[in-house]
């Protein structure tokens, strides 16, 4: 039965019941009036009869119509609400979620079946993409390792001409860059497939930030960029030390690379309530407002990054976002082109029980 047919039958039933109630009331008043005339009693004034009909019959009938219509619409829209809440829970990392069947046999049931079939096809497609990425990155590692070893051997050979040495050195740089891309793709593909396990333990985040600050000063030296650590509150989080180091390296390296000569980078770690907030600011070219929603997309690089000759492939922020979310935190990116760009990371502090463990 279609939704239209069911609603028509329900509304027709409620309307019939309301009209029957009103007709019964009018019939009762008519019979009562006839009985009064038969007994020789004075009939009620017309305005009293009309008032009684409106008060005792028309008002309840209207109320019944209102409540019945509200109940019917609520019952009809209930499956839509359930489907909407279920659909909201579906995202790229939760494609196995399926909408519950309504059991009504109407258009919503058909829509649910179509939607679930579409989600099954999407899940299968994304699974194939992840498997391809994992297999391709795995297969690329061996030839890249061989190419690097052979090129380094040729570079160390004393018989190699100087001009050829420069070519080999450039080739090694490109091989290293390509290897980093392959490693990043492997990490993201494994993370999407749920194959990355975090070694959670209490970690002094302020110590990692100080280490990252020292590393950032070395990375910033060629571009004569100033790196400052504004504040560094003592904070402990429950996390994976290796992944948190990777997060800090990605963010600081990104802030230094996308900067300007003699620019600056500011770092700050603050304890805010039950969270640790890390701020990393730089004064580079920034990101246009229309590109901000895409900064965490894989392989996305803003126009300024494309035209500046900055090394990178647009995966660093995607990895940073995955690390933060895997630790139950949040990451935000804001930018005022030509002025300041800020990355804000918030991580939950370790609970007292976790510190004791």
3D structure, described in words:
- The chain is α+β, with helices and mostly antiparallel strands and 357 residues long.
- It is 60% helix and 13% strand.
- It contains 9 helices and 7 strands; from the N terminus they run H-H-H-H-E-H-E-E-H-E-E-H-H-E-E-H.
- Strands 2-4-5-7-6 form a 5-stranded mixed beta sheet, covered by helices on one side.
- Helix 1 packs antiparallel against helix 2 (46-88), helix 4 (162-192) runs parallel beside helix 8 (316-326) and helix 6 runs antiparallel to helix 8.
- Residues 304-308 have low confidence and may be disordered.
Radius of gyration: 35 Å
Structural class: alpha+beta
Count of distinct strands: 7
Provide the low-confidence segments as ranges: 304-308
What's the story with the biggest beta sheet? Answer: 5 strands, mixed
How far is the N terminus from the C terminus? Answer: 60 Å
DSSP summary: helix tally? 9
- Any idea what the shape is? elongated
Arithmetic mean of pLDDT: 80
Write a concise synopsis of the structure shown.
The protein has helices at 3-38, 46-88, 107-156, 162-192, 205-220, 241-257, 303-307, 316-326, 352-356; strands at 201-204, 226-232, 236-239, 264-272, 275-282, 330-336, 340-348.
């Amino acid at each position: 039965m279609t939704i239209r047919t069911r609603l028509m039958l329900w509304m027709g039933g409620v309307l019939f019941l309301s009209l029957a109630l009103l007709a019964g009331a009018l019939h009762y008043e008519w019979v009562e009036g006839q009985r009064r005339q038969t007994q020789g009693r004075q009939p009620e004034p017309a305005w009293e009869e009309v008032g009684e009909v409106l008060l005792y019959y028309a008002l309840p009938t209207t109320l019944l119509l209102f409540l019945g219509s509200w109940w019917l619409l609520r019952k009809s829209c209930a499956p839509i609400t359930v489907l909407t809440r279920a659909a909201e829970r579906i995202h790229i990392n939760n494609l196995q979620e399926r909408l519950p069947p309504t059991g009504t046999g109407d258009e919503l049931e058909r829509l649910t079946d179509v939607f679930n079939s579409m989600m099954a096809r999407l899940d299968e497609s994304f699974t194939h993409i992840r498997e391809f990425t994992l297999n391709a990155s795995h297969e690329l590692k061996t030839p890249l390792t061989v190419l690097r070893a052979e090129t380094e051997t040729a570079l160390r050979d004393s018989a190699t001409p100087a001009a050829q040495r420069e070519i080999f050195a450039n080739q090694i740089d490109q091989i290293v860059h390509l290897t980093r891309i392959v490693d990043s793709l492997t990490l993201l593909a494994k993370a999407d497939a749920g194959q990355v396990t975090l070694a959670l333990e209490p970690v002094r985040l302020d110590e990692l930030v100080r280490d990252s600050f020292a590393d950032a000063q070395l990375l910033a030296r060629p571009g004569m960029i100033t790196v400052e650590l504004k504040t560094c509150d003592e904070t402990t989080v429950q996390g994976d030390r290796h992944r948190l180091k990777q997060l800090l390296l990605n963010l600081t390296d990104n802030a230094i690379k996308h900067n300007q000569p003699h620019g600056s980078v500011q770092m700050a770690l603050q304890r805010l309530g039950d969270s640790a907030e890390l701020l990393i600011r730089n004064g580079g070219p920034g990101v246009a407002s229309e590109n901000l929603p895409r900064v965490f997309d894989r392989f996305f690089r803003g126009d300024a990054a494309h035209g500046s000759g900055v090394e990178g492939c647009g995966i660093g922020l995607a990895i940073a976002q995955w690390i933060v979310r895997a630790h139950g935190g949040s990451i935000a990116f804001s930018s005022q082109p030509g002025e300041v760009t800020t990355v804000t990371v918030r991580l939950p502090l370790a609970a007292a029980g976790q510190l004791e463990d």
